[in-house]
Amino acid sequence: MHRRSLITVVLALLLLSTSMSVGSVRAAGPDRAACLQSPFGPGCTAGLPSVEYQMLLDEMLLHPSPNVRQVPVDEDELLRFAFRKIVGGAATIYDAPDGNPVGTIDEGFNYVTVTDTQGDWIQINDGQWMPASQLAIARPSEFTGVYIDDPLPYTMAWMLLPTYASVSPGAEGDQSRPILERYTRVNIFATATVGDWEWYLVGPDQWVKQTQLARVLYIERPAQVKGRWFAVDLFEQVLVAYEDDTPVYATLISSGLPDWETNEGTFTVWARQVNGHMSGAEGQTDFYSLENVPWVMYYDNAISLHGTYWHDGFGYRHSHGCVNMSITDAHWVYQWSMDGGYSTPYVYVYSSGEYK
After folding, report:
1. Which of 56, 64, 217, 225 has a CA that sits 20 to 30 A from residue 20's CA?
2. 4 has pLDDT over 80
3. Distance between CA 225 and CA 218 in Å, rounded?
């Protein structure tokens, strides 16, 4: 009897083990590749294995947006100057309202600063006036970066375009849901590759293509760099400020266009200006003249970090080589490095990817 009982127990254990093995195989379900092919097929949810998606769902509900503090808009800085864009081609400068011509500004991308008004005339400098009909109001961007107080559990990103998120990687945007507006901050919970592009899961059933956002990516501190320094990612168009190895601040920037690419490398700031005049490409179709460019830090010969009042295209390449920032951001970067005792901080320029 004792031997029969032992055999029975052994057989029962073998059957249980076999049953558990089969159950484990069934529980494993489809992998990511299969779920990309059939995003809502058996065992799949929104392009991911359902088990993985359910685990991420809790995290998405717990972290609907990055745990960061937005830098307040510096209203005093935005109002420190009144800027105007020259419209209608080349412009004539007069010595007084209805006065005599004393100079011209060539046709191009040109801005001036208003110091006084008199009827339909605007004073741009002492003894220099222009008719208001040749000037259009320029409103500086109110975009600002964020303080990073604590380590973030997920990669943070800004939306670059108003976007309807897709319910699965590679799908068309779902217009039945609220649009993700430009400059919205999101967390990235998962990544999938469809064709040549990465897609990011930023919320429940919300996937966006990599071209629609800019990620904040951290890097190791270069060996010679110390103290307060800046990393500029040309691929993501993002600047991160570091205190030694700790990221403390991040924002969107605009670097050089393809014909005026911003150089990569490790630099130190060699000169500063609270505000200064910038111009270039004299006699060419891309001539530009910009008065009172605020919070300038030169680091690569004539290339600088500086505030920008003439566009709100942060997150995209836009400049003749400089690193454009919003006025609030440029003021913060300028002052933060000075407050830490680093009048000549390091600027590390690199690219985390390649444009396609």
Report:
1. 56
2. no
3. 15
